[in-house]
Every structure is written in structure tokens, then in C-alpha cells.
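Input.
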Amino acid sequence: MYTVIKELEISASHYLNLPYESKCANLHGHNWKVKIYCKARELSDYGMVEDFTHIKKCVMDVFDHQSINQVVPFNPTAENIAKYICDIIPTCYRVEVQESEGNLAIYEQEDI
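Output.
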């Protein structure tokens, strides 16, 4: 099994729709740290699990310097963002999204 890991930093804002009072319901920004894990049993014809540039483009084109609420159809929690990223990259099985120091959400597919 081959594995590649791509780390990115995204600057973006969001607000959360929550059923309780929270500062996070206000528009605010983060410098998100994202770690994307991809794997494959065999390499592609060009010798890769996934091109690092492709991974970066998939994520940055959607999120970087955006108001995330305006580009995704879900409540943009770190958990939901992690799953979304995992779903848009075919070889991805795990994504870590850190929105601030000490706050990390992980999504990992169960069956690969």
C-alpha cells in the first residue's frame, strides 16, 4: 500500500449555525491547517498515488480566501469540512482540519 500526505494552509472565514448562543455564530476567520492522506494499492501509470498539485488545487480552489458558508451547502464545521475534502479526492481516506491551535477535527473513512 502506498500513502501520500499533503499539508496545506487555507485562509478563510465562516460562521456556524448552532442551536445555542456562541461567538462562532458570528463571521470570523481562521488560517486553517489541513492534512490530507491518500493511499492506493498500486501507483498510477505515471508513478503516483495522487499528484500533490491536484490535491492542492482541489482544496484551495474551493476554500482559500473564501467565506466558506457561501461555497458549501452545509454548516461549515471543521468536521464537515474534513469529510467534504475527503469526498472530493478519490484516493483520500483521512483528513485533519485544524481551525486554530488546540482545535483539530479528523474524518477517516472506515472501509478502504
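DSSP finds two helices and four strands in the chain.
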